[in-house]
Amino acid sequence: MSASLRRPRVLVTAGPTREPIDRVRYLTNRSSGRMGYAVAAAALAAGCDVDLVTGPVDLAPPPAPRGARLTVHRVETARQMRAAALPAFRGCDLAFHVAAVSDFRPARFVRGKLKKRDLAARGGALVLELVPNPDILWECGQRKHQRQLLVGFALEAADGVRNALFKLREKNLDFVVLNGPSALNATRADVTVLARDGERISIRAEKSRIGGQLVALALERWRRQLHKTKATIR
Ligand code: C5P
Questions:
Q1: Which pLDDT belongs to residue 234?
Q2: Nearest 5°: phi and psi at 155?
């Protein structure tokens, strides 16, 4: 069925990742998953089918209205998130990468529990070697085709617009949503949406409302893009 006749398929990544150090310890961040879940809820409410790839969060999956399909993929690490997100990306029309993916993970996983006693033998300091995680959004940007729309998030402490615009180009995005560290673990946020064509929209609201506006904006742009590509193919 042509994309304009069926329900749009949406991928959302949400929440933090956890990168294990040993059997009981891990590296993570303060992401609550609220923004990602709000985007997933808004996409379902707008009549889309949704793949929600979620790190560990304290939230219930959003309700799917009758007829809409919600598939929840629960993951812990960035590499697990990538393994779930890439196949879902292949079949989706719009993707929102809201997850706060850990940029690094410990180079080695200690099978048992690191013992304080063993550390003391090395002068008491624990030196963790970290290696970079795959950038899932960048990989999606490389694979994106004309009929897909890709949205990324940028959490910037300083020089926000410049860094966000750099990400927009580097990761081949259609939109980048800029927010500050105060958005982490909060119910409200103050975001600026930067579009590839230079458009800028600021939204300050509850995350649930921001989710609705982002989905409406992206769906409208995706539909317009679809018509344009159809017209060129004809
Ligand atoms: O480069 P930075 O981490 O600031 O980019 C943030 C954006 O990239 C978010 O949309 C996030 O979901 C995505 N990301 C990703 N994989 C990573 C790091 C970030 O998909 N390893």
A1: 58
A2: -100, 110
Q: Which CATH superfamily is domain 9-103+129-233 in?
A: CoaB-like (3.40.50.10300)
Domain ranges in the chain are: 9-103+129-233
Catalytic residue among 29, 133, 163, 172: 29
Q: What is the tens place of the pLDDT at every residue in 50-97? A: 999 999 999 999 999 999 999 999 999 999 999 999 999 999 999 999
In the annotation, is 29 catalytic?
yes
C-alpha dist (Å) from residue 230 to 95, 219, 233: 20, 16, 5
pLDDT value, residue 186: 82
Residues with CB under 6 Å of ligand 1 are 13, 78, 97, 99, 101, 103, 133, 135-137, 152-154, 167
Residue nearest to atom 2 of ligand 1 (CA): 154
* Low-confidence residues of the chain: pLDDT under 70: 233-234
Which residue type sits at 66? R
Quick one: CA dihedral 170, 176, 179, 184, positive or negative?
A: negative
Q: How far apart are CA 198 and CA 216, in angstroms?
A: 18
User: In what order do the strands lie in the sheet containing 70-74?
Assistant: 70-74, 49-54, 9-14, 94-97, 149-155, 175-179, 188-195, 200-206
CB-based contacts of 214: which residues, under 8 Å, 6+ apart? 39, 42, 96, 151, 175, 177, 193
Q: In angstroms, rounded to a whole number, what is the distance separating the alpha carbons of residues 118 and 130?
A: 20
User: Measured in whole angstroms, how far is the alpha carbon of residue 221 from the centre of its chain?
Assistant: 19
